[in-house]
């Protein structure tokens, strides 16, 4: 269940990051409420995952996959550019996540 909770935490993390952009400095009510709920959901599900997973593994995967998802969806939703350095950085994060998962014995 820990990996399922972590996956949910990643989804909420991505929603939080994308929602933060939509708040326009927390001047828009609905995007701001969405962002606060998404942040709370991400932290809640991360805390459930960390009951079983090492904090170093769980937090790194949460932030890493959250970052990748945010950049990809940011490109799709907000038309942000994905450059070669970004792609190489994503590859490094993915390799790191795979290595952490192997190192944690799961």
From TrEMBL:
Tell me where in or outside the cell this protein is found. Answer: Cell membrane
Question: What Gene3D superfamilies does its record include?
Answer: 1.10.3730.20
Organism of provenance: Nonomuraea endophytica
- Domain of life here? Bacteria
The name this protein goes by in its record: Quaternary ammonium compound-resistance protein SugE
- According to the record, the segments passing through the membrane are 29-50, 57-78, 84-103
GO MF entry, a single one: transmembrane transporter activity
Protein topology in the membrane: Multi-pass membrane protein
Task: Give the family from UniProt.
Answer: Belongs to the drug/metabolite transporter (DMT) superfamily. Small multidrug resistance (SMR) (TC 2.A.7.1) family.
Answer whether the UniProt record assigns the keyword Hydrolase to this protein.
Answer: no
Q: What is the lineage of its organism?
A: Bacteria, Bacillati, Actinomycetota, Actinomycetes, Streptosporangiales
Its chief place of residence is membrane
Q: Name one Pfam family in it.
A: Multi_Drug_Res
Q: Give the GO cellular component terms, alphabetically.
A: plasma membrane
């Amino acid at each position: 269940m820990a990996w399922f909770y972590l996956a949910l935490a990643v989804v909420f993390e991505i929603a939080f990051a994308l929602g933060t952009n939509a708040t326009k400095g927390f001047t828009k009510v609905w995007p701001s409420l969405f962002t606060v709920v998404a942040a709370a959901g991400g932290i809640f599900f991360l805390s459930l995952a960390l009951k079983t997973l090492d904090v170093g593994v769980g937090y790194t995967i949460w932030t890493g996959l959250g970052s990748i998802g945010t950049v990809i969806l940011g490109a799709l939703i907000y038309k942000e550019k994905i450059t070669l350095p970004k792609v190489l950085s994503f590859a490094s994060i993915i390799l790191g996540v795979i290595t952490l998962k192997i190192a944690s014995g799961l």
